[in-house]
Amino acid sequence: MANPAAPVPIPVSALMKYVSIMMEDINGDHIYSNEKAILGYMPTNEHMVLLPGINYDGPPEMNMTTLGKLETVNTNLGPPGDDYRADNPYLVNPMITEITMVKLCLLNMRSLMSGTSPHKIEDALLISALRTRWLKLGCLFQSLADRAVQRDEVTYAKADDQIVLSRTEDDLMIADAAAYVAHLNFMSSEAGGKIMEWATTNAELVWNMTEHLMRSRGHHYKEDFSKMANTMYASSSPGNEAWPTAINMLLALRTAIHPFGIRALPVMAYHFIWHGKIGLGMVKRITGASNGFAAATTAYAGMSMISSEPWYAKYVATYENQIALLQYFAREMLNNRYAFHESASLYGITPIRHIMVNGISNSMADVDLAVSAIAPVLQGFIEWSKEFDKKSVTQTFTFAGAKVLERRAGANPIQVVRLKALLTTTIKLIEDAATSSEAITETFPMMKIEEK
């Protein structure tokens, strides 16, 4: 039997490359961090590059607890906000001039188009133009503590960089022209101009869209957010237009904004709203629930859906404790939206993970059990609504598309089926009523009307 061929040795450099990966702590730290998992990693070439010697600190001082309250958005809308706007101007950073904006774009484009996964020039300009506009608007907390970030994704260009040293447009054209002439030419082209125009026109809207996605979904952007993002954009964009197919949604909503951190998102979102820069469709969304509690808020809202049913009072009496906890929690959470967020520390605020009801401490697990107790009846209504929507030409139900209660309702599927059957029978009795009085009685049992 022939001796097997000797194995070809793996180069030591390649071997150590993979061994070094095995030596790393999970998620780049000593312990797993939910905040790091949510934020993800940005490769070095996607870090934001700043010019040295400029004070970029811009966001106004706002209390995160106050921002988390429902009524806060109304405090500075219209004339009542005149003092706020006087103290906190819109285009806040006078140090960022036109030539500075060009240099910032060039520095970021150079970085974005380098590395092992370089961006194409169109995408590099989009990211750079949005970042430059946000810097001009004062969106960056310059200190890491104020930014409340897990890792710093901001770098500074070297003081002797030719772009940094340039003082005029002519300087830029001769500053290592071989490397930057393509960037400058594209910025000067019609295609490049359209990208910069879109970034300037939509920077505030993109910012507020990202704030909503992070608060309600726990991430800047993922592919399955595209339908939601399209709806938001169309509701508030100039002319209610659709998101342009030429603009990469991931790059605008995640890559471009990522280095600014999470705390700045609500601070500047309110700032833009109070300066009248955000359409009503997005203004309404600023009071939406925190990520991770959609089931609780849907259940809370769903209670009004069944409140007119003749059996509602007895139903409430049966599940009195669960409904009381759910209602109290929903009010508390909607008035502490950032403290209840699963990554509250990223907003620079102390997390809330327990609530006191009638002197008893309740955890989020207790809230989830309360949701599971009442979810089957609400899911039965939702299941019935889906079928009704298919048959109806004019009527639609707000909750027909809700899916968040399905898993919790699965603990009692028989009750889901019973409620669906009850509604079907109730509608049939109304449809089969011989007189209007009978129909009214079946519709509103508490208003029984005798025939004359």
Which characteristics define this entry?
452 residues, 2 domains, two-stranded parallel ribbon, two-stranded antiparallel ribbon, 53% helix
Largest sheet: 2 strands, parallel
Count the DSSP helices. 22
Q: How many domains make up the coordinates?
A: 2
**Overall SS class:** mainly alpha
Residue share in helices? 40-55%
What's the gyration radius in Å? 28 Å
Oligomer: single chain
Would you report the number of β strands? 4
- Look at the structure and give the mean pLDDT: 83
Query: How far is the first residue's CA from the last residue's CA?
Result: 108 Å
Order of helices and strands: HHEHHHHHEHHHHHHHHHHHEEHHHH
User: What are the segments in which pLDDT stays under 50 over at least 5 consecutive residues?
Assistant: 23-33
The dominant shape is elongated
Share of β-strand residues: under 5%
Order of strands in the sheet with most strands: 1-2
Structure write-up:
The chain is mainly alpha-helical. It has 22 helices and four strands. The longest helix is centred in the middle third of the chain and has 28 residues, at 190-217. A two-stranded parallel ribbon has the order 1-2. A two-stranded antiparallel ribbon has the order 3-4. A hairpin with a 2-residue loop joins strand 3 and strand 4 (360-363). The chain is elongated and about 90 Å long. The N and C termini lie far apart (108 Å). It folds into two domains: 41-287, no CATH class; 294-443, no CATH class. It is 53% helix and 3% strand.
